[in-house]
Amino acid sequence: MDSILASIKNVFSSLLGKASDNRAVGIDIGTSSIKVVELKKEGGKVLLDTYGALALGQYNTDGHIGQVTNLTAEVLAKALKDVLEETKITSTNIVLGIPSVSCIIFILQLPTEIEESNLPLVIPNEAKKFIPVPINDVSLDWYVLPRREDSGTEARVLAESGGGASMSVLVVATLNETLSKYTDVAQKAALPADSLEIEVFSHIRSVMTRELYPVMIVDIGASKTKLTIVEHGIVETFRLVNHGSQDMTLGISRSLELTFDQAETLKKQYGLAAPSEYPHLAEPIKQQLAEIFQETNATILAFEKRYNKNIGKIIFTGGGAMTHGLLDYAKQSFAAELAIADPFAKVEAPVFLGGVLKNTGPEFSVAIGLALKKMQ
After folding, report:
1. 293: exposed, middle or buried (Cβ count in 10 Å: 0-12, 13-18, 19+)
2. C-alpha span between 177 and 197 (Å, rounded)
3. Is residue 276 part of a domain?
4. Separation of alpha carbons 112 and 115, rounded Å
5. CATH code for position 309
6. Which of 17, 103, 163, 363 is 20 to 30 A away from residue 343, measured at CA?
7. Domain range spanning residue 24?
8. Over the stretch 177-217, which tens digit does the pLDDT of each residue have?
9. DSSP 8-state code for residue 348
10. Does residue 113 carry a pLDDT above 80?
């Protein structure tokens, strides 16, 4: 199995991965849906071949579209085969996304005199301080970060190492249980399970464009929101917030006394632009967004205070980022430049699909990033 962190070098240097085929498929298995994207390379260009999504709620006995699920590997494999059949994807040159919620991502500062050959002995011992589960329950991967010539980094290194020189090592600890489940899903779907990537790195590849300043990526998923601060392609901060787009739907359902399906439909159709027949539709959505924005601001403030740097841009992605009126509402909470992720802009696609792809893009950020891993 390829290292699940293997793409970090490419993320850091080019925000794109390495090619091994003229076609590549990104598979993002979320808690409420599966998203797939197939790209192909022709004449030096990366082209969108096909894409699709499948709601997982329908695979529950009493499930609903947009509902968070916890399906077995066998059922997920069935759903995966269904969406691949519907999209007519046949390539087995795939990259499967591993959910960031199953990972702990942090940076270790180690003395420079440690030989890189000794890191497999040193890192597990140091990593225990950051991991709240037994070390045997996780798989560790790491990458020694290139030294950056900027005062903020130097100040951090000196402060955290007691004044001496140190090397920065990006470490990812992934639950073995999750790795086993996703490997099992791929095998049951008759797909290779040798190329995995944690979704946070796929996001970096698909939504960033060589920004020279720190960027906050706010991924509003169905069950949770992932906050990632990235600088020069490297994850500096990663946090989870226990609020997501399903909470918006549940709030609408309770406050307006609607079924889950009715609330989901209204949320997707109107978002914060409440229609006259439902004048209070926006309130439950604003309540959840306010919680997310509060945690986002706290994370930004902690970063800026620690490193003496400002976040230059906030990119919203994930299904929740498609909420109508999100950016206008977010302007009340943030001073930085705001943007909705547009991952399809990284590939060539038919002009007549431009509007559709831009609107649905945030939901496919991970899948596109996964496929791009093999297309450069």
Report:
1. buried
2. 15
3. no
4. 8
5. 3.30.420.380
6. 103
7. 8-246+285-372
8. 999 999 999 999 999 988 999 999 999 999 998 888 999 99
9. B
10. yes
